[in-house]
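Handout, section B. The chain below has 662 residues.
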Amino acid sequence: MPTAEKSKYAFDDVLEVQNAPLAIADTRGKIIWYNNSFKKNFKQGRIKGYSVPKLFALNEDEYLSKLNSHNSFVHPLPEANKNLIISPLYSKDKKRKLNGYFIELVPTNLNDTESEKDKDIVERNIEFLSALKNLLVLLVKENSLDDISREIISKAISISKSDFGFIVFHNENNSYEFLFDDPEEHIKDKPDFEKEIHSSFSYINKWLELYKHSLLAINRNNNIGFNLTKILNCESLIITPCFFEEKLLATIIVGRIDGSYSAFETSSIEQLAALLSFAISNIRTGDLNKALESRLLQAQKLETIGKLSSGMAHDFSNLLSSIFGSVNLLRKRVPKKEDTVRLIDNIEDCSKRARDLTKGLLSFGKPTPKRKELVKPNILLSEMAKVITQTFPGTITFTNQVEENLHDILGNGTEIYQVLLNLCVNAKEATDGKGSITLVAKNITIDEKNIINYPLLKEGNYVCFAVKDNGSGIKEQDLQKIFDPYFSTKSKETGSGLGLYVSYGIIKAHKGLIDVSSKDGEGTQFDVYIPAFEPQREKHVVPSDKIILLADDEEMLIDLLAELLESNEYNVIKVNTGKEALTVLTEEIKVDLVIIDYNMPGMNGLETISEIRKLNLDMPIILSTGTLLSDNKVDIDKYKINGRIQKPYEFETMLATIKKYI
């Protein structure tokens, strides 16, 4: 949030709640802001823009003389029975640039018997306004919640003349954090005190949330805060809530060994609490924005790596397709001798491994999941738990916290199993074989109410998997690189650095998210979110005759593919460009199915399909691609594409796909 906006927010929302008449003047002494209490002291409607001497009918020379002293000063206004207090506002940097003046009207009582009391009130008001001014400057300049909180509790103790004080910060998980200011060490054993305060604080919190103002606790039976005064061994406490948008963020507590508190002191603490509320909300929002920005930058970096990888996909896939095609034809033409068959099998097995590795790495950029199936997470996790309990050392405590009736997932069960098992193996290594690992799985629904907690996901139903360990953790500087290829905290002998890189790609291919949180020395948690399966109706395609038009710019591949199709009794027409495909289709040759490569020179596959549909030709069209197009990148309905096949081709799968349509 820009500095100017923070200042405006603080002035409007914090200073306005005060009962004291307050105003701000610029460096020329002209009023630029005032609260309602200040306005009530003047009959004229317009105040903004008036100079201080004109507004209060002061001698301008005398006023300027005091102003030029650059110190706070009090100017009595006998007719109004008030004192005018003016304090300069300086920037907190080394230059101490004058930014304006802070103005307050303080009632005065001329009765001699009350003069000492009035003097004390004026002095304490000046002290409070000076503290408020310094805190406002600190709030605008400082981004450390710890520094701001320490300054606020210090001022709270000073202004209220307390013996000690502390701030209780309320966390999301109903736990507390404490910040003490106890120079005389009145609270002897702070860790024990923190444990003891939890039971006493529960009822006080409910009271604060109900009434939303300070509670004056005194050491008397039947007082709400009696137990707390007893624990702290003091006479009285001011317990002030810090609310922001109806949410209790913290509580300021100051205490006196003897005596009670005045209304002025309670009001002063409440105004400091308003400042602390703003600081907590503002800084936490800033921290959240930084975290989200960091995660988005990481996602963009990974996306860039993926795009660079997918640029290689076309050539890789064409080469592998040629190998597969050659193997298929060799099986048909070479005599079936044992040695020959074994060599062909070896070539095919190695090609399959190369295909799977290529797809696994390239899926990182623009992924398409492999064979989709309906995955039952409860069955998958049950099988994985058996493997873990049988293979992990007995010195590791493995806990399985899996909800019943997890949503089904549409995807590749083998890949999901691979990702989760890889995370568990990483957790085992992080615990050095003697810690605890917890596997959690549950259904979650992301909607408009909680989507702020899942900024990188869309609304809908998900299955959330979590793998937690209490191992060595991951250093903060390594967290941003954890999904980078070849990055590993393991030794070169035990890890290649591709496990999490490939896992990221697999989960992204399933339109999900994998996230990590960790603290060095305290453990790590990986969270995996995969969308739940939502059934959709499938389209029925009517089969036709057996003339196929092949459009691909890779000569070797198209020749092999044509030979394979012809060996299966299909008639094949081969072209190398989209323009040639259109020429064939407009020459009254009846084509019953078209297979078009996405990457062709000139007119690419999608552009060619678009032109074919403009000719009102309704034959089935299959799009083939060596790059990995994700489902949401190609509008099937827009281009009227009947199917897609992925390079490198699996020819049996390809033949089965063709038979679906003709």
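Note. The chain has four domains: 3-141, 145-285, 373-531, 547-661. Compare this with the example in section A.
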